[in-house]
C-alpha cells in the first residue's frame, strides 16, 4: 500500500506504519492496544502517555491523530533505531513527543518528570527469555506509581504456545493492579499457538465493564477478554 512501511530487524517484521493514515494499524495486537487507547477516555480527549519500547512509534502516531494534543514520552534502548525511524518515517504534524534513550526500567525516574501518565504501554516482551528486571513485580510496582489515579498500564506479551510468560506476567501485574484483564485472539487461550496477548490493569478499584463490551465489539475478531474468576482459572 502506498505510504505504508514495515520495520524489519534481523529479517523479522517488528512494526507497520501507514504514514498517510496513522490511525490504520495493521498488526492485530497493536490494533487491540489502539482500541483500548480509544475507549479508556472520551473520544479525542488529549492524554499523557508513556511508551516503553518505541519500535516504529506506531502507537505514538496513532495517539497523535486520534487524540490531538496528547503529551507522549517514548523510551527506546537503541538510539540508532530511534534515529532511523524518526529520519525515515516522519511523525504526524503536531505530534508532541519526548524521547528517552535507555532501558525501560532504569529510565522510569527520568520519564516520571513528564508524568503522571494516563496510559503506560510496555511493548518489549517477545518470548520466554524476557528481561528479568522488567518481567517482575518490582517493575510493575514502579511503573504503576507513574499512573494517574484512573490510569491504565498495558502490556503486550509475545509468547510461545505454552504461555508460560503470559501467566507469569499476569500474576505479577495482578499483584500490583488487581483490576487486570487479559485480551487476545480466541485461539490463543488454548495454549496451542505462539502469539501476542494483551494484559491491561487499571489503578481504579474495578475494571470498567463497559470497556469490555466496547473492546469485544471493536475486535479484531474473534477475541476473548478474561477477568476475575475466568482469569484466576487461566492463570493457574
Largest beta sheet, briefly? 8 strands, mixed
H and E order: EEHEHEHEHEHEHEEHEH
Strand portion = 25-35%
What best-fitting shape do the alpha-carbon axes yield? globular
Query: Could you tell me the number of beta strands?
Result: 10
Query: What's the structural domain tally?
Result: 1
Could you tell me the CATH topology label: Rossmann fold
Helix/strand/pairing class, anyone? Answer: alpha/beta
The termini sit apart by: 43 Å
Count of individual helical segments: 8
Radius of gyration of CA atoms, rounded to a whole number = 17 Å
**How would you state the average pLDDT, rounded?**
94
**Order of strands across the widest beta sheet?**
5-4-3-6-7-9-8-10
What would you note in describing this structure?
With 236 residues, this protein is α/β, with parallel strands linked by helices. The protein has a single domain (27-235), classed as Vaccinia Virus protein VP39 (Rossmann fold, 3-Layer(aba) Sandwich). Helix content is 31%, strand content 31%. It contains 8 helices and 10 strands. Strands 5-4-3-6-7-9-8-10 form an 8-stranded mixed sheet, with helices on both faces. A two-stranded antiparallel ribbon has the order 1-2. Helix 5 (137-144) links the parallel strand 6 (117-126) and strand 7 (147-159). It is globular, with a radius of gyration of 17 Å. 38% of the residues are buried. The model has no long low-confidence stretch (mean pLDDT 94).
Task: Describe the secondary-structure layout.
Blueprint: E1 4-9, E2 12-18, H1 28-39, E3 48-52, H2 58-66, E4 71-76, H3 79-88, E5 96-101, H4 108-111, E6 117-126, H5 137-144, E7 147-159, H6 164-176, E8 179-185, E9 195-202, H7 209-218, E10 223-226, H8 228-235
Helix pairs in contact: 1-2, 1-7, 5-6
